[in-house]
Design a protein that fits this description.
heterodimer; A: 290 residues; mainly alpha; ABC transporter involved in vitamin B12 uptake, BtuC; 13 helices; globular; B: 300 residues; alpha/beta; Rossmann fold; 2 domains; 10 strands
């Protein structure tokens, strides 16, 4: 059965492949739905900025305890939240807009993080911090990823109505309820939480890819918000699976391959996406002419 | 006027002294020597003794393959009277760094005269730079460093010769000890997995097979295929032990061990010494540590 060998055998034969797949699925279930909200709120770059913001915190954790789960998670969470809140404060109190303050924060974070990791002397660990190690997920990391995914889904379910309202019509939500502020804060906290989870598997530079690429692609496929969330999660899972399979057969690094697969799906949606892809626009133009 | 000029002269003189000869001002006898990494520095310290002050650019636990030079390194090189490098492509960054630093000191290639082993990486054959992993080669390193020191500091020739002679005796003793220890391990069990195949010379010299999930360099990330190959191989050939290395992700090794059923050995040091309080703070301790860890995992 060559097809079985190609697509399924790697996972039945090797536990590390199953672990990597389980980790990717956990990341894909929770991250892309958050990405959908980020994109609809025009905050796509916020995710990127916060992913970088995690680095110095995780690096401080690394500095104190090496490549260990707890300190790096706590450090990353703390740093991500500081930047999320800090850039909002800067945007409200100074002349700089939010995008500029985020850009400033994340450049500083990235430079600071790389410097801190290098302090410990062994620079190969920097690669693991920047690019993660999806093949080396141990039990504790898997449990953390699953817990983050579960908590995120539960929180999204509970906050779904105010979150959608705030996304599509923030002033309406403000006129009927005072939940807008807390919802925004909880949402950003969820984003940071998922980026920290993604950081363990994919590293700071790629974690945000799992969140944004499937979401951007889903936006091109459908207008319907509920469907968009489902499609985004499904694409994340598909990208995780396809990336691992290609990495397995072609002998290429797994983390970057997973994000590349998500990128490939995005490019396909960009061309063929029924809700705003290139092809649709082209067709409509012709139709109007005729 | 005269007063002001005196002050300026005084400042200039102190600047010159502070900038150009800070080390000699305090300890005039010690000659500054730069080695690219901790193991070479240890050899140089043993040969140079009190006459030289050795600085290693890549410190304990650092990875020489992917090192990013710092500005301070160029300063050290500029001040050095002798530069000791491993050669065989280990320090890809050193030529540019020496050029950039404007260093005029002679460069000693410590592997000169060693017959380099070939090594396969991703289908390409390259020279294996980790020659110090065989004690016989370490003796050549020591001889090269001794000759280099004598060439730049002929006054110390007798000191360098006698230091080198007594250190070479220690290495002879070490070699006997290592061979005796390894003889206790059954030949069929002398196969292990480590994260980084820096043990090619060790393997040839002492009859071990080292198999690595990553290539010759720690620069490349292991792919799923590499890891799968290793696990298949451990199962197929019943390889008894897996070892961590001090410079790559230990979680990957643990996951391979858990999946394949091999035992996880302690830490082997290959490319870098440990910090002074660690088990491998000198070359001799490093070799002893490695052999002890290997016997502990393989002897039963």
């Amino acid at each position: 059965m060559p097809l079985h060998d190609l697509l399924i055998a790697p996972f039945t034969e090797f536990a590390f492949m199953r672990r990597a797949l389980a980790g990717s699925i956990a990341l894909a279930i929770a991250g892309p739905p958050l990405g959908v909200f980020l994109i609809l709120r025009r905050m796509a770059l916020t995710g990127d900025a916060m992913a970088h913001a995690i680095l110095p915190g995780a690096a401080l954790g690394y500095l104190t305890a090496g490549l260990s789960l707890g300190p790096m998670t706590i450090g990353g969470l703390a740093a991500g939240l500081v930047v999320a809140v800090g850039s909002g404060v800067v945007a409200r109190t100074t002349i700089l807009r939010e995008d500029a303050s985020l850009a400033a924060f994340y450049l500083i974070s990235l430079a600071l993080g790389v410097t801190i990791v290098s302090l410990r002397g062994s620079n190969i660990d920097l690669l693991h911090v920047l690019f993660g190690s999806v093949l080396a997920l141990d039990d504790a990391t898997l449990i953390l990823l699953a817990a983050i995914a579960s908590a995120t889904l539960a929180a999204l379910a509970a906050l779904y109505r105010p979150l959608v309202l705030e996304t599509v019509d923030a002033s309406f939500l403000a006129s009927v309820s005072k939940s807008g502020g807390p919802v925004q804060i909880i949402f950003l906290a969820l984003v940071v939480l998922n980026l920290v989870g993604g950081f363990h598997a994919l590293g700071t530079l790629l974690a945000v890819g799992m969140m944004m690429l499937p979401a951007a692609s889903a936006r091109l496929i459908t207008q319907d918000m509920t469907a968009m969330i489902g499609i985004a999660a499904a694409q994340g899972i598909l990208a995780g699976y396809a990336g691992l399979i290609v990495s397995f057969h072609a002998g290429l690094p797994s983390g970057p391959l997973i994000i590349l697969m998500a990128g490939l799906l995005y490019l396909l949606a960009l061309v063929f996406g029924p809700a705003g892809g290139l092809l649709r626009r082209f067709k409509r133009g012709r139709h109007l002419e005729g | 006027m005269a007063n002001a000029r005196d002050v300026i002269t005084c400042i200039l003189v102190s600047l010159t002294m502070a900038g150009a000869v800070p080390v000699r001002a305090q300890t005039p006898a010690k000659m500054p020597v730069v080695a690219t990494f901790s193991i070479l520095a240890d050899f140089a310290r043993n040969v140079g003794g009190e006459r030289i002050n050795v600085v290693a650019l890549v410190g304990p636990d650092g990875d020489t393959h992917v090192y990013q030079p710092k500005p301070a390194d160029a300063k050290e090189l500029g001040a050095a009277r002798l530069i000791v490098v491993n050669g065989l492509g280990l320090e890809g960054w050193i030529d540019r760094l020496i050029k950039a630093s404007g260093a005029k000191a002679p460069v000693i290639v410590a592997t000169k005269g060693i017959n380099p082993q070939k090594m396969r990486e991703e289908g390409r054959i390259g020279r294996d730079p980790h020659a110090w992993q065989s004690i016989a080669n370490a003796k050549i390193y020591v001889a090269n460093i001794r000759d280099g020191l004598i060439a730049v500091d002929p006054d110390g020739a007798s000191v360098y010769r006698s230091n080198a002679a007594s250190y070479l005796e220690e290495l002879d003793a070490l070699e006997k000890e290592v061979l005796a220890e390894i003889a206790k391990i059954p030949p069929g069990r002398r196969q292990i997995i480590t994260t980084h195949d820096a043990f090619g010379y060790f393997g040839t010299a002492y009859g071990f097979r080292f198999i690595a999930p990553e290539g010759i360099s720690t620069e490349t990330e292991a792919s799923a295929r590499d890891v799968a190959k290793i696990i298949r191989q451990i199962k197929a050939q019943k390889i008894p032990a897996v070892f961590l290395e001090n410079v790559t992700d230990p979680r990957l090794v643990r996951s391979i061990a858990a999946e394949s059923g091999a035992t996880v050995g302690g830490t082997l040091y290959s490319d870098a010494l440990s910090p002074p309080d660690g088990p491998a703070s000198t070359y001799i301790d490093m070799m002893r540590n490695n052999v002890r860890e290997l016997s502990a995992a393989l002897a039963n």
